[in-house]
Amino acid sequence: MTKTQIYKFGGASLKDARAVQNLADILRNRLRNNFVIVVSAMGKTTNHLENILSRKLENLDYSTNSSILKSFHLDICRELFPDGHVIFPKIENYFILLHHELDKPISKDNYDEYYDRIIGYGELLSSRIVMEYLCSQNLLILWQDARELISTDSDFRFAKIDWEKTRRNCQSQLKPKVEQFPVLTQGFIGADSAGRPTTLGREGSDFTAAILAASLDAGSVTIWKDVPGVLNADPKIFSDTTLFAELDYQQAAQMTFYGASVIHPKTIKPLANAGIPLFVKSFLNPDEPGTKIHSLAKVDSVPTIILKKDQILVSLKVTDFTFIEEKHIHQVYEELQKLKLRVNMLQTSAITISIVIDSQLFKLEQLLSQLNKDFEIRYNDGLELLTVLYPEMDYIPRLLGGYEVLLEQSTRNAVQIVRRAK
């Protein structure tokens, strides 16, 4: 029997009506049974929902923001469907449900759980619109709620997968469907054992595709992007980029660890463990080969540049005239773990621990309040973290023109620099 293929389409490939039509064109000659399509929210919908949540948390009116988001989806539908199509009341109903959730109280204490109840509406909306449009184009396809498949713990916003239960769900619920018809589902969302919505971390739709692939013993996963494949730098920021025709799992995992945005960091491991190849291709040029990530004997040592923005450098200095010990690092990491903050860079000196973390709503103030009794703390925000893998030393100065360097460290195969514009 033909092994299942997984296709994942992100927000950029669903940003407007023309993009949805392009998605249908890509699928038209490729779609068959044993096919699962995973979609993200449309365009910048997740960002808009986060803005609504921020306004609600600050007791500000969010009705205009919600109306804009609703109009965005309805405008796309008006371009894709005739008047009176069933999609219009479905969209209206999703926004009624969304507002019902938004009417409930929110606080810093329940923010993460509240976030997961709200944010998944982006994927539910996009998956309904795409499914209905494909069906209108005579591409028969089934809709599947990912929350019935992806079983997680209750670590809201960063939920961990219950792999055994998820595999059982996929084998019992998804596999019989996919053997008969292509199935479309949502990325990024799951549910805990009590049925409460959870999410897998921002940009988690790639991870969803890998989870479903591993659970179905799939033949391949293809992620459709607005770039030709995996490049050695973001072409929106850096010129003269190089396309990797092939990458080893380990090298791809290293790139995602340091923050390469083309693939979600958790995507590689389940695919590598199962030996499932991952293709990264362009939805703008779908017939181009893109990048294949699989087992390779040789690592491609082309210098690779990864830039993370909105970074915070936190320096923690011991105040009791002792030196930094393992217990201090353990204390800091324990608080970071409680707040679900990932360290993007760590450096220690005799009396100081320096960490670089992503900027997240009100998380920094919570971290400082927990650690300021034991450390003297300074921080800088609005920074960038530049990582260069397999660097050529004469290449680094070209990346620092017009920038001030706040922190730098090197290993055998990587250079990391915290910088800010002068």
From TrEMBL:
Superkingdom of origin organism: Bacteria
Domain (Aspartate/glutamate/uridylate kinase): residue spans on this chain: 3-282
Biological pathway: Amino-acid biosynthesis; L-threonine biosynthesis; L-threonine from L-aspartate: step 1/5; Amino-acid biosynthesis; L-lysine biosynthesis via DAP pathway; (S)-tetrahydrodipicolinate from L-aspartate: step 1/4; Amino-acid biosynthesis; L-methionine biosynthesis via de novo pathway; L-homoserine from L-aspartate: step 1/3
EC number from the UniProt entry: 2.7.2.4
Main enzyme class: transferase
GO terms, molecular function: aspartate kinase activity; ATP binding
Entry keyword annotation includes Amino-acid biosynthesis: yes
Reaction it catalyzes: L-aspartate + ATP = 4-phospho-L-aspartate + ADP
GO cellular component, one term: cytosol
Biological process, per Gene Ontology: homoserine biosynthetic process; lysine biosynthetic process via diaminopimelate; threonine biosynthetic process
Entry keyword set: Amino-acid biosynthesis, ATP-binding, Kinase, Nucleotide-binding, Transferase
NCBIfam families: asp_kinases
Family: Belongs to the aspartokinase family.
Name the record gives this protein: Aspartokinase
Protein's organism: Algoriphagus antarcticus
